[in-house]
Design goal:
Shape: globular
Largest sheet: 5 strands, mixed
Number of strands: 11
Number of domains: 2
Strand content: 15-25%
Strand order of the largest sheet: 4-5-6-7-10
Structural class: alpha/beta
Low-confidence stretches: 251-282
Radius of gyration: 20 Å
Bound molecules: S-adenosylmethionine
Distance between the termini: 35 Å
Length: 282
């Protein structure tokens, strides 16, 4: 049974199942407080339904793209605080874990690194075509008007040696795409010429009167330390197609890859999130 092409809950995951189907399966086969296991959890339909129906859950997937998507889906459905109630095991948590992931599979590294800032990865088959030179995108709306233009940040991710030519290339791609900002994510520290090139690209001036460097460099170490992108306040960030808000029990306030383990463990769906419950190991 596949999900209707125009369904609100559709997130673009090719094999996504309808929540109504999972509702029936979970209700028929478990009670509140039981644990639901989906060992191939994809974009997290079973996980989302289990959360909403007051079940504990374990979701497993091998691709980092699925992890990013599930995190965003849970936050959309139950609010950002949901992240404090589950543990993610298998993602890098420090620089050595990030290096190990990059050595193992540079695409998985890209998906994971882009997920740190909520950016949507460009599918591998599109990179040779229209999206050449773009590893990911993040959209924002900084116009007060509801009808305001959608602005975009383009990402390039370097797991190997990065130099000034990569920044110049990204600058060219920003101009070609008429994008607003560009960010080079790098595992290594940027060189002096890279910093000079970034500075020379000037600023994006937002309607709020704030200025943001048009070309930015973020090291993985900086991102792991919590440093995000210097961007305008946005009224609605829609990088991933937004999942609908959950209704019912667990409701809170708002709404061609390869091999690595992912496991999300939901501890107790009936208790409020407490500090320090979230953790991950690489
Ligand atoms: C058919 S999709 C699941 C979609 C899900 N039913 C939904 O509605 O969102 C299968 C998922 O299994 C994952 N997968 C494939 N091999 C796996 C493995 N050995 N261990 C864990 N996950 C795996 C894939 O990455 C993919 O996301």
């Amino acid at each position: 049974m596949d999900i209707n092409q125009s369904a609100k809950e559709r997130l673009g995951y090719p094999t996504q199942k309808p929540e109504a189907l999972l509702d029936r399966i979970v209700l028929a086969s478990s009670r509140e407080g039981d644990t639901v296991l989906d060992p191939f959890c994809g974009c997290g339909t079973a996980v989302t339904v289990a959360q909403r129906l007051g079940r504990r859950w374990i979701g497993i997937d091998v691709i980092h793209l699925a992890i990013s998507l599930i995190k965003a889906r849970l936050a959309d459905a139950f609010g950002d605080a949901i992240a404090k109630t589950y543990k993610v095991i298998g993602e890098p948590v420090d620089l050595s874990g990030a290096r190990a992931l990059a050595e193992l599979d540079r695409y998985q590294f890209q998906y994971w690194a882009l997920g740190l800032v909520g950016a949507r990865p460009t599918p591998a088959d599109q990179k040779k075509g229209a999206d050449q030179g773009i590893d990911g995108r993040l959209y924002f709306h900084d116009d007060a008007a509801e009808s305001g233009k959608t602005k975009q940040i383009l990402f390039s991710v370097k797991s190997g040696k990065a130099d000034v030519t990569h920044l110049r290339d990204l600058r060219g791609v920003i101009d070609r795409e008429d994008a607003d900002l560009g960010v080079l994510i790098t595992l290594q520290e940027p060189t002096g010429p890279m910093r000079v090139e970034a500075t020379s690209a000037g600023f994006y001036a937002s309607p709020w009167g704030t200025n943001h460097p048009r070309l930015q460099i973020r090291t993985v170490a900086e991102m792991l330390a919590g440093q995000g992108i210097d961007m305008p306040p946005s009224r609605d960030l829609r990088t991933f197609k937004k999942a609908p808000k959950a209704k019912g029990k667990g409701k809170a306030e708002r709404p061609d890859y390869s091999i690595l383990p992912f496991m999300g463990l939901r501890d107790d769906p009936t208790t409020a999130p407490s500090a320090g419950e979230t953790g991950a190991t690489s």
